[in-house]
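Consortium newsletter contribution from the modelling node. Members have asked for a concrete example of what our holo predictions look like. Here is one, prepared for the fe (ii) ion complex that several groups have been discussing at recent meetings.
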Amino acid sequence: MEIRDWCIRILSATTLEEKVLSPKILTDLTPGPAILWDTPSRPRGMEFQAYTKKDKLPPLQELHHPDKRAICLHRFAGHELLAVEVMAYALLAFPNAPKHFRKGLANTLREEQGHVQMYAKRLQELHVTFGELPLYRHFWAYTKTLLSPLEYVSVMSLTFEMANLDFAPLYRDIFLQYDDILSAQLMEQILQDEIQHVSFGMHWLNTMKPPSLSSWECWRHHCPLALPKQTAKGKLFQIEHRKKAGVPEDWIIQLSTK
Ligand SMILES: [Fe+2]
Ligand SMILES: [Fe+2]
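And here is the predicted structure:
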């Protein structure tokens, strides 16, 4: 299947099966003209809902209760589905991006589809169906700011996925503390994949950035104002995971400060 057709199917899908459709062979022979997708179709009941303060995640000290853990896992599953859709958006929006960039992005998209399925399975084990709790627009709201692959890697890989280098191990450790080994293993798998996704973004930022800008300057320059640097980190700042992803030392120092 052509990458373009695959992404159109993902963004117009009305079933979860179609959202996670992953053809054995993907080709990129006719990327076609750019498409700037407005809003993805969603399975019934999984449409974007307005986010209010009452929708905040349960506090960490309440996660001894499986229902509260399921609320967190459901939110994370929602982020994975959004990642799938934002990556499909980028593949349709940037048909002229380097072939290797598109191939790497398509591979990342496949992994995000795998993450959706892993969370959906774990939720089922906790007696929750993916889609029965509210889902939000979140990452999708930034698609309008993605004017080139540089904005894509800055916003998606190097902000949202970067933050998961802190959040995934935080929740892994909390789940472990409450003896939920399966959920902890899932978070560990997400962390390992996320290190690769950040690494992908770092590589392409460095490849595509103007030589006059440092990596850090290029990242800040290509993030919208609505995304301050704090968005790219969690409460417990993980230096080692960033080093593994190839984040430069000066970037790590600048991000670690307030
Ligand atoms: Fe993911
Ligand atoms: Fe990711």
